[in-house]
Here is the input.
Amino acid sequence: MKIHEYQAKVLLSQFGIPIPKGSVARTPEKARKAAEQVGGKVVIKAQIHAGGRGLVGGIKTAETPGDVEEIAKNLLETKLTTHQTGPEGLPVHTILVEEAVGVEREFYISILIDTSEKTPLAITSEAGGMGIEEVAAKSPEKIIKQHIDPVTGLLPYQARSLAYGMNLPQEHIRPATQIMAGMYKLFTEKDCSLVEINPLVITADGRLLALDAKVNIDDNAIPYHKDIAELRDISQEEPLEVDAAKIGVNYVKLDGDIGCMVNGAGLAMATMDFIKYEGGEPANFLDIGGGVTQEGVRDALKILLSDPKVQVAWINIFGGIVRCDLVARGILEALKEKGMKIPCVLRMHGTNVEEAINLLKESGPNIIFESDFTQAARKAVAVAKA
Ligand code: GDP
Ligand code: MN
Here is the structure.
């Protein structure tokens, strides 16, 4: 789960990490009040679940509360598109008004899970600010890494090595290691998958400060953290994924045009691989699971068909635990409610498959039956391209 920058900063400060003075606003009038409260020059930051805001006008500075109100008017209730949001962008319902600090130098620190090493990984860089991905690609020597043994945690020598690797002035080494210790504590206590400060800055008056923050929490841990669960902002999430979560199916929206409905995560992955291999693009990952009900099939297919990008649906079912005829009845229910405006490729094997196919054939919707995996993939890709 993603949370906003202002929420991430509250968490960081709970773990002893210095953050700028500021407060949030959801209306231009509140933004003006927030600016009066902070005093002096301020920075106005659009709160969306994505970075890269600085490059597209999502971060502005203002000298007076009046200017802040104007900027807030132009920023609130718009959509911001950055390289991390996808083409539709994300809505700005909240802005953060913060003291503008004079920045001497910008650094990068993060802790995340290295899935190939199966441990937490701390990363620092002297080249913080905007575009850390480019630094990693062009000047990898500026990226310092330390794998963390979860049994020992982040050891003092590792934190020192990360801090010296950032080429921090001597007087900031100890404060930086304390910041890293706080970040690691937050990372483990709140079951994060990412804690990132970019940039961590040395201010003109010589302080270390977290100017931007990003904290992601492992979805599986949300039920254990009531305080974190309350931070959820579904206005920042894909609406179809929110609907899917409500009915308990695993749905991830992707950019392609071939909608897939599959049972079992392994089969769903294989289905997407076959589509890619045949030169197509999946519109989604959708695993309806093993113990699915007829209503579950119906609702899952309705979600798939709600995506306007979908040109063809490929239903790929192995009836092991679930019976094929039950899936067929669920499909028919969905089609009765939503209509079948697009072609559908159906591959089905397993328990009661004959009955299922008869049911679907009798009711005569626009279905292409294909029992071979490769052929089904080819047909789905061909229909999508036509
Ligand atoms: P992001 O682009 O979404 O990652 O947003 P950030 O919060 O990282 O802001 C982008 C950039 O704006 C930072 O790297 C800073 O250079 C600049 N910035 C943000 N806040 C301040 C501030 O208070 N003072 C100054 N001088 N620069 C700031
Ligand atoms: Mn940033």
User: Anything to note?
Assistant: The pocket of manganese (II) ion (ligand 2) is lined by residues 51, 198, 212 (CB under 6 Å). The mean pLDDT is 95. The longest strand covers residues 103-114. DSSP finds 13 helices and 18 strands in the chain.
